[in-house]
Design brief:
This protein is mostly helical. It is built from 7 helices and 3 strands; from the N terminus they run αααβααββαα. The protein has 2 domains: about 40 residues; about 110 residues, Orthogonal Bundle (Arc Repressor Mutant, subunit A). Helix content is about 65%, strand content about 10%. The protein has a 3-stranded antiparallel beta sheet. A hairpin with a 7-residue loop joins β2 and β3. The longest helix has 26 residues. The radius of gyration is 19 Å and the shape is elongated.
Length: about 150
Amino acid sequence: MGTALQERIKQTTFTSVYQEAFLNLIVVADHLRRNLTRSCEAHGITAAQYNVLRILRGVYPNGHPRCEIIERMIEEAPDVTRLIDRLVRSGHARRAKSKDDGRLSLTFITKKGLDLLDSMQKDVDRADAEFRARLKESEAKTLSALCERIYAP
């Protein structure tokens, strides 16, 4: 395979091509996560908060119960309730009781949350452009299919 991983982790041999592929996936996931984290921090939120805001924007003007947000998150978060609490305190989200079931609390994105996502779009577009510059469309499709084979049931 390539030498980038060998140089990155200062290791020249691997027990198998599977180990090398596994380590490459971990390194690339970390690379992408760090880029997202930097963009989010520049706007005063965490990557997990960004994830929740994107989920809520997807159903705007409606909201989601906490359990639905948890199911849709890209990465698991240890305490989604506190994460939502922080978004509510910062004014990026709000909570309200469901009209259909008063026992159910829904979370909605606010105008401030929508504005924040809009202000972050340039950073998101830049990260997308960097990714596009490294892969052809057919390679991106192949990568997606391979990743899904690894994590899908």
